[in-house]
Amino acid sequence: MRGLSRRAEMRTRASAVQGLVSRTSHPRACAGALASLLNGLPIPGKIPMAEPQRSHVPTYSAPGARILIVEARYYDGIGDMLLAGARRAIEAAGATSEVIGVPGALEIPAAINVAMRSGLYAGAIALGCVIRGETYHFEIVAGESSRAIMDLTVQHDLAIGNGILTVENEEQAIVRADPAQGDKGGDAARAALALLQLKQRYGVR
Q: 76 in helix, strand or coil?
């Protein structure tokens, strides 16, 4: 209910801002009133990461499993952190990994599809980072890469963990990619391992 109340408050303030702008012609008065209306609303670059409410990080066992990591190495520093987190989780499960690279996030699902058809891998992990820019391209890349990965997972019973970050700025990306903070690479690996374990439990090949 708290989240719903917050969204309702934001909609109310946004409507008030629109009304104020349409009625006010004095810039200074308008600026002061806007500041008052917007006080307390979240700033896009400062939205905190949603922290998982769990007592411990789940671990999985997949001895001997071969896991594919497909990464779009667009930002090297962020890519290094995502990959480190993913590899650590895979090694903790007793599995091994192989890394292949693609130019961008949109190519990740196609690469996973091609590689998984070989039958060499038990699961796959998608790693990349999409930072919002000035155009609609962000929405296309973020939405279409996620949709294609979900389609592969559901339609072909593949164990895929999605570790493609979709963020507003580099600061958000670093917090989420860093294994000591958000560890989204590790989370993606654990997601793939969890699905692999589920497939094995029900005998799905």
A: helix
| Every domain of the chain and the residues it spans | 2-43, 66-201
pTM score: 0.76
For residue 137, what are the CA distances in angstroms to 98, 106, 107, 145, 182?
Answer: 30, 11, 15, 12, 25
CATH class in words for 66-201: alpha beta
Give catalytic status of residue 56 as yes or no: no
The pLDDT score that the predictor gives to residue 113 is 98
49 with 79: CB under 8 angstroms?
no
In the prediction, which pLDDT does 27 show? 47
How many CB atoms are located within 10 Å of the residue 88 CB? 15
Catalytic annotation, pick one of 26, 56, 137, 156: 137
Contact yes or no for 163/185 (Cβ under 8 A): yes
Q: Which amino acid, one-letter code, is at 137?
A: H
Nearest to 153 by CA among 102, 187, 204: 204
Please list the rounded mean pLDDT of every run of 10 residues in the chain (205 residues): 50 54 50 47 55 75 97 96 98 98 98 98 98 95 98 98 98 98 98 97 94
Token pair recorded at residue 42: 């979240």
Cα 140 off chain centre by: 14
**pLDDT at position 122:** 98
Closest CA to 97 of 116, 125, 129, 75: 125
